[in-house]
Amino acid sequence: MNKSSLRDIRVIGEKVRHKRPLSAGTSKHRWPVIVIMTQWRFGSTIVGEIFNQNLDLFYLYEPLWMVDHLRSTGRLPGGTFSTPAREESLKFLSGYARCRFSPRFVDSINGWGGRERNGAICRSSAEDCVMPSAKWTRELCLKFRGRLVTKLLRVDLDLLKTLVVEDNIDLKIIHLVRDPRGSAASRIHYTLAYAQEGDRDQALNTASRLQSLGLLNFTLKERDSIPGMCKWLRENVQHSYPLPDWLTGRYYLVRYDDFADDPVGVTKRLYKFTGLPLPSNVVEWVTRTTASNNSGSGIFDVNKDSSATARKWMSELNKLEIEQVEEECMDMMSILGYKRYDDIIKGDQD
């Protein structure tokens, strides 16, 4: 796949229109359900916020956290990508497209801090972004008349294909990717922040923090590892090229790094792809939040100099760590337009 092929993938959603199917249990949907499909530490919080800030949209922040919660509490067997986990994810997403929510979804999300990023719910909730019931959540969702957006981690195109082909749900899929080296640096920062003091000290005094923190171990770190991240990128990009019929008009590949370089421009292109009108308050929010004078440093802080954040890996990873990421991911990095570190340095020196 060459660079022109990648460019074709990234704009195909703007150029091709498709006949929208109906969503079961409702009348005709005027709007497709918008899904941001991404991975951990890919810059998805801020990209999701360009929709969450829109008062006309019902946005859900990582609702499939419920699936991890069910697994961690022993109510769902298997690993992150097991058949039971995928079936639970499909059940939730099929219901979400029709504004149907289960009591256990409400109970799970109400106990999680991530609920505070569900803008529509927070604006309507009488108690700290808490959903009073599944019925209340359904009634609120229905008020948005199909204008639904959600950010999903650890799903893939195979799972979303089932929703479109078998469940007849109209989707628009924003496939958000990131330079794996930037994600690796962010994962180190996140993992160290929650590590025990002894583990943190040990990691900081080793040649490779990725190795010490287990981020290179796919078996032990199924969902969080660098090999796992690269496998997810590889499989999903390969499934989208050449573009299959079911994805025609539905798919837009966007690099977080491009958003960081041109936040307003990418926001406009994403809204054009979805077919949604772009409110002026969203443009103002993006401009203010990503300004170069922002210095946010928190793990989940969205108020940052976005361009500088995208390139921090060059100073935050050592040479060995960069080489380890490139060894795992270079095939996908080349397809996605990322250069080797040595070539970047050489280019800067020329």
Any overview of this molecule?
Residues 11-29 have low confidence and may be disordered. The protein starts with a helix and ends with a helix. A five-stranded parallel β-sheet has the order 2-3-1-4-5, with helices on both faces. The chain is built from 19 helices and five strands. It has 350 residues and is an alpha/beta fold. Helix 3 packs across helix 5 (103-110). Helix content is 51%, strand content 8%.
Give the proportion of residues in helices: 40-55%
Largest sheet: 5 strands, parallel
Strand order of the largest sheet: 2-3-1-4-5
Q: Helical stretch count?
A: 19
Computed structural class: alpha/beta
Please compute the radius of gyration using only Cα atoms.
20 Å
Poorly predicted residue ranges: 11-29
Shape: globular
In short:
The protein has 350 residues and is an alpha/beta fold. It contains 19 helices and 5 strands. The radius of gyration is 20 Å and the shape is globular.
Can you give keywords for this protein?
alpha/beta, 350 residues
Topology:
Layout: H1 3-15, E1 33-38, H2 44-52, E2 58-61, H3 65-72, H4 83-96, H5 103-110, H6 119-124, H7 134-142, E3 148-153, H8 157-165, E4 171-177, H9 180-194, H10 197-204, H11 209-212, H12 226-239, E5 251-255, H13 256-261, H14 263-274, H15 280-289, H16 306-310, H17 313-316, H18 319-335, H19 341-349
Parallel strand pairs: 1-3, 1-4, 2-3, 4-5
Helix pairs in contact: 3-5, 4-8, 12-18
